[in-house]
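Deliverable D5.2: sample structural annotation.
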Amino acid sequence: MSLVFAALFYLASAVLVIGVARKIVDYWRTPAPLLIPTTPAPTTQGGVVLRMFRELAFFESLFKANLWIWALGWLFHVSLALVVLRHLRYFTEPVWDWVAFIQPFGMYAGFAMAAGLAGLWARRFLVERIRYISTFSDHLMLALLLGIAASGLMMKFVAHTDIVAVKTFFLGLMLFDIQPLPGDGPLYAHLSLVALLMLAFPFSKLLHAPGVFFSPSRNQADNPRERRHLSAWAAKLEAK
């Protein structure tokens, strides 16, 4: 099983990195022919940076649109960030001081992550207009994330696994030196779901993570009177 999971994570890592990189290149190359910032919008680039920060850190537009969905979404994303940062201890030796400091916060953030996911998934069943537009992939991503959270909490609070051996395994993967992986069912389930999420990520709606940086309604300044907006391809046509 150690060899199987090693091969699975090498494959998943390659698909994740290459797939996301290709998608970012596509976003970068896609022209924005119109100036379409969502108003009220900043009129300077500094203002755009500040707006993007508020959007990324506080989900400003969602807060203005729907408060309870904002609460569930923000709870999930902040908890997920803490959980991911907590897992850096499995890839660093010695463990960085700040990673050691957030361990207890990241541990209990798993419960908040599961609660946020459960609320967001319930919304897709209970709100008629959201249920109508929800697809299989929407439910699959939520199920994967909730399964990852549940299996992780199970390993911590129900069926303890050998975390020292798990860390040895992942440190070995980074050096292409395959080490034994503990034979625990919850661990196998957790790692399988994580790998599946990594494989699906470049082809799913989860790409809104890098995609938000390329959203013209967010990354454009509202300055049509001060500066003419001309996309690269339009500039070439005009030059001819």
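Annotation notes: The chain has a mean pLDDT of 92. The radius of gyration is 21 Å.
The annotation will be released with the project's public dataset once the embargo ends.
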